[in-house]
Amino acid sequence: MTRCAVIGAGAWGTALADLLSRNGHDVSIWAYEWDVIESINRSHVNRRFLAGHSLCETLRACNDVGEALKGAELVTFATPSHVLRTIARSCRAQMTSGLPVVVASKGIEQDTLALMTDVISQELPASVVVALSGPSFAAEVVAQQPTAVVVASPDANAALFAQAAFSSVHFRAYTQSDITGVEIGGSLKNVMAVATGIADGLGLGFNARAALITRGLAEMTRLGVKLGADPATLSGLAGLGDLVLTCTGSLSRNRSVGVEVGRGVPLEDVLAGRETVAEGVLTTRSAHALAAREGVEMPIVDAVYRVLFEKQPARDAIGSLMTRELRAELD
Predict the structure, then answer these.
(1) Using an 8 Å Cβ cutoff, are 262 and 314 in contact?
(2) Rounded to 5 degrees, what angle do the CA atoms 201, 202, 208 make?
(3) Which end of the chain is more exposed for a tag (fewer CB within 10 A), N or C?
(4) What is the pTM of this model?
(5) Apex CA 178: angle with CA 177 and CA 179, to 5°?
(6) What pLDDT, on the 0 to 100 scale, is given for residue 122?
(7) How many Cα atoms are found within 13 Å in the side-chain-facing hemisphere of 178?
(8) Helix 84-91 vs helix 116-123: angle between axes, to the nearest 10 degrees?
(9) pLDDT of 127-185, one tens digit each?
(10) Rounded to the nearest 5°, which phi and psi values hold at 223?
(11) 44-47, Cβ contacts within 8 angstroms, sequence gap of 24 or more
(12) Phi, psi at residue 121, to the nearest 5°?
């Protein structure tokens, strides 16, 4: 049995904490919202973020990071990307040297354009960082539906430790060393999901969806390779696997945002009142900036950026993709 702490009690953090608890580990989850803490501790559900799913009765929730981290042998961060740095910094005093830290947050930081594992490495430099990513809706993980993900780290022992902690008969974790490729896949697939949602909202059909997914993968790979990733990683679970799920699954928050935008609903109205974060909106802005910094051509990312932040009509943005200069597929 491993003493585990999960920082962040949204749907994904709750699902991972439940998984670790059902695997027989001693798990505490830190939550910002007091109603979430009360719901988990009293009723063994997370009514706010994962309603309708019973949680392991041994899972404990708290609002004090020191309490959650006390004695932890494995720490998992599953916060929204835009607050990860602040929350990680608040944990620094309680973290012991060499502690394995799993980063399940997905995104690219707005100001620094840092990947989530880089944020943790900067704020918790004594930790050993592992990225967890792959095709995995929280509701299906907590329902114990078969799921396969990747745990990636340049430290092979840390990856193996995380693999053993998370794996079960329902949840299979594969190890990887290419942490950059895994992170790029996990963050950019959300932008591509917004794009395919926009196309679906416009009623453009399955051909357009397939084209966006495939060319989206090409863009993800192009940027990943420029940042040092292995292109094969983007063809695996954390790249293609997560991309297909997020672009086609009915549970995808990012796709659903795109659908509404494609139907003509202003972005601010789409986001108003949403309880959960659609990371694809935040990542579109940072991915657009990162591509510009690295000199990487990413026309789908550019098109989504124009629709979301420059008010270009969605149909015009899709049209601009179809009328670009003709070229070879592999370039």
Answers:
(1) yes
(2) 100
(3) C
(4) 0.96
(5) 100
(6) 98
(7) 21
(8) 30
(9) 999 999 999 999 999 999 999 999 999 999 999 999 999 999 999 999 999 999 999 99
(10) -70, -40
(11) 46/9, 46/11, 46/14
(12) -65, -35
What are the structural domains of the chain? 3-177 (3.40.50.720), 187-322 (1.10.1040.10)
Tokens describing residue 22: 């059902």
Whether the pLDDT of residue 229 is over 90: the answer is yes
Give the tens place of pLDDT for each residue, 171-180.
999 999 999 9
Give the bridge partners for 131, in sequence order.
Answer: 103, 152
Identify the helix (H) or strand (E) that includes residue 198: helix 179-201
CA distance 168 to 163: 10
Task: Report CA Rg, the chain.
Answer: 19
Other residues' Cβ atoms within 10 Å of the Cβ of residue 320: 14
Dist. CA 157–CA 139, nearest whole Å:
29
Closest CA to 216 of 195, 201, 242: 195
Half-sphere exposure of 49 (CA within 13 A, CB side): 25
Catalytic residues: 189
Say if residue 273 is exposed, middle or buried (CB neighbours under 10 Å; 0-12, 13-18, 19+): exposed
Between CA 59 and CA 178 the distance in angstroms is 32
